[in-house]
From TrEMBL:
Family listed: Belongs to the phosphoglycerate mutase family. BPG-dependent PGAM subfamily.
Pfam families: His_Phos_1 (PF00300)
Lineage of producing organism: Bacteria, Pseudomonadati, Pseudomonadota, Alphaproteobacteria, Hyphomicrobiales
UniProt subunit comment: Homodimer.
Active site: H10, E88
This protein's pathway: Carbohydrate degradation; glycolysis; pyruvate from D-glyceraldehyde 3-phosphate: step 3/5
SMART domains assigned: PGAM
Record: residues binding substrate: 9-16, 22-23, 61, 88-91, 99, 115-116, 159-160
Taxonomic source organism: Terrihabitans soli
Protein name: 2,3-bisphosphoglycerate-dependent phosphoglycerate mutase
Gene: gpmA
InterPro entries: His_Pase_superF_clade-1, His_PPase_superfam, PG/BPGM_mutase_AS, Phosphogly_mut1
Keywords attached to this entry: Gluconeogenesis, Glycolysis, Isomerase
Function: Catalyzes the interconversion of 2-phosphoglycerate and 3-phosphoglycerate.
C-alpha cells in the first residue's frame, strides 16, 4: 500500500523578506513566495502526485501556499483542514523584531539558540519542544491515520512547526535537529512503512 506524506513550508512571506521574527503573526506571501508556491505545485505535478487529504495552519501564508499548489494540481475542490496546531512556533516577544537587530542586542549565539535549539524558548514564546508538544499529537491523531489508510496527504505549514514533525519523521536528536533547515516552497515527499516510520524521503 502507498503511504505518501508531503510537507511544504509556505513560500516567502512579507516578513521573511523584511527579516522579521514572525511566529503567529499573519503576513501574506510576497510575489517571490507566490512563485515558490506555484513552483512547488508544478514539481508535485511533474512527480504525478495528487492528494486525497490536505492540512494547513490557521495562518494565511500557509493557506495561500496550499491553495496555489492545489490550483497547479487541478485540485481546488479538495477539502482543506485548517488547525492552529500546525501554526508556526510562537516567537513571543521577538515577534515583529528584526533578526539582525536582535543579534546586535542579544548576541549571535543567543539568537541562534532561540531560533534553532530544541528546548530553549524565546522570551514569552515557544521552544521547538513546546511546538512539538502541539504538532505531534495533531499529527498522530489527525494526519497519520489518513496516511496509514493509503490516503495521499499534503501538509503546508511553517519552518518550525515542520521542523518539529521532521524531528520525529527523520529521527533527529536534540542536537542534530539544530542544523535541519527547511526552505520555503520546497516539497518534502515522505513514504511511510507499515509501522508508520519513514522509509524514503526526497525533495524533487
Ligand atoms: O517565524 C519566523 O520568523 C520564520 O517563519 C521562521 O523563523 P526562523 O528562521 O527564525 O526559525
Amino acid at each position: 500500500m502507498e503511504r505518501t506524506l508531503v510537507l511544504v513550508r509556505h513560500g516567502q512571506s512579507e516578513w521573511n523578506l523584511k527579516n522579521l521574527f514572525t511566529g503567529w503573526k499573519d503576513p501574506g506571501l510576497t510575489d517571490v513566495g507566490v512563485k515558490e508556491a506555484h513552483e512547488a505545485g508544478r514539481k508535485l505535478k511533474a512527480e504525478g502526485i495528487t492528494f486525497d487529504r490536505a492540512f494547513t495552519s490557521n495562518l494565511s501564508r500557509a493557506q495561500k501556499t496550499l491553495d496555489i499548489i492545489l490550483g497547479e494540481l487541478g485540485q481546488t475542490d479538495l477539502k482543506v483542514v485548517r488547525d492552529e496546531a500546525l501554526n508556526e512556533r510562537d516567537y513571543g516577544d521577538l515577534s515583529g523584531l528584526n533578526k539582525d537587530e536582535a543579534r546586535v542586542k542579544w548576541g549571535e549565539e543567543q539568537v541562534h539558540i532561540w531560533r534553532r535549539s530544541y528546548d530553549i524558548a524565546p522570551p514569552g514564546g515557544e521552544s521547538l519542544r513546546d511546538t512539538l508538544a502541539r504538532t505531534l499529537p495533531y499529527y498522530v491523531r489527525e494526519i497519520l491515520p489518513e496516511v496509514m489508510s493509503g490516503k495521499r496527504v499534503i501538509v503546508t505549514a511553517h519552518g518550525n512547526s515542520l521542523r518539529a514533525l521532521i524531528m520525529v519523521l527523520e529521527g533527529h536528536t536534540q542536537d542534530s535537529i539544530i542544523a535541519r533547515e527547511v526552505e520555503t516552497g520546497v516539497p518534502m515527499i515522505y513514504t511511510l512503512g507499515p509501522d508508520s516510520r519513514v522509509v524514503s524521503h526526497r525533495e524533487p
